[in-house]
Design goal:
Organism: Plantactinospora sonchi
Strand content: 5-15%
Number of helices: 15
InterPro entries: DUF389
Radius of gyration: 26 Å
Shape: elongated
Strand order of the largest sheet: 2-3-1-4
Order of helices and strands: EHEEHHEHHHHHHHHHHHH
Keywords: Membrane, Transmembrane, Transmembrane helix
Helix content: 55-70%
Pfam families: DUF389 (PF04087)
Number of strands: 4
Oligomer: single chain
Protein name: DUF389 domain-containing protein
Length: 343
Amino acid sequence: MLHLRIIVPTDRSAEVLDLLSRDPAATHVIVLPGAARTPPGDVVLCDVAREGADEVLDALQALGVHRSGAVVGDGVDVTLSAAADRAIDAAPGHGTDAVVWEEVAQKTGEETQLSATYLLLITLATIIAGIAVLLDQPILIIGAMVVGPEFGPLAALSVALMRWRPSVIRRSLLALGVGFLVAVVVTVLATWALTAAGLINESMLLAERPITDFIWRPDALSWVVGFLAGVAGMLAVTSNKSGSLVGVLISVTTVPAAANAAVALAYGVFEEAVGSAVQLLINVCAIVLAGVLTLLIQRLWWHRVTVRRPTPPARRMPAVLSPRTASRRPEATNASDPAAFRP
């Protein structure tokens, strides 16, 4: 489930409560009149089944709650509640299949920042992969794939293209372009430095490398693997399956291709550098295309699931009292009276 903390102006609380009362996916509704200070207003807490969370968030935004107040969501790991079970049963589909679009957009949007940490990670991964292709070592290749942070901008680019967010598209392309450029340049310099130190040499690049030779020889299977990895990666992002994402990172030849191109450039082996660059481009395009198509299919399929859900009658919820009104109300003496628990 998803836990929502909603701050809403006091005069708009009734609208929010009416919205939550009509949605069977929402439960555990708690109202704290006048509890919010910045921004001022009432605080409404509730839990929402992931299957219906996207509709609730869209409805809250349609009310303008995010402009005059705030909506904050957190995942709920443990829930022991019959009311929660009823909400999950009433919501359409399965929670593992549900896509909370705002969650996905914010999660992937954070990966588009061209930060020092991002540049350092992609550079280190490329240098490690450069040494790996020279040594023809698959273990180092796998390690470089896991360290590389490039799937974040690729996923963000897919989401931004599907939802058409030009600003996120620009940031994603900038992170990818600058990131790989910096990584290649630094790897070229590192290759020259290691060569001068006598640790590596050009003959290692020109020698037979049966394990890593595929990196600069793209073929039809390169596109197939990249496309399948893009589908799996997007499913891992939308369903919070981080374990699956690790497998995706290991299956795509992005950082290794950039590393092979850098090493080949350092030694002047331009044919291999071009082949590696083509391999990188194929994988990037395949992942993004697969990501966009996966998201489109998920949206269309989930739309068909949600339109079949009947609209239940509204549940009765107590009116929200402002602190001033609540102070005028006679003190409740019955412990079962909800007013006894109001501030």
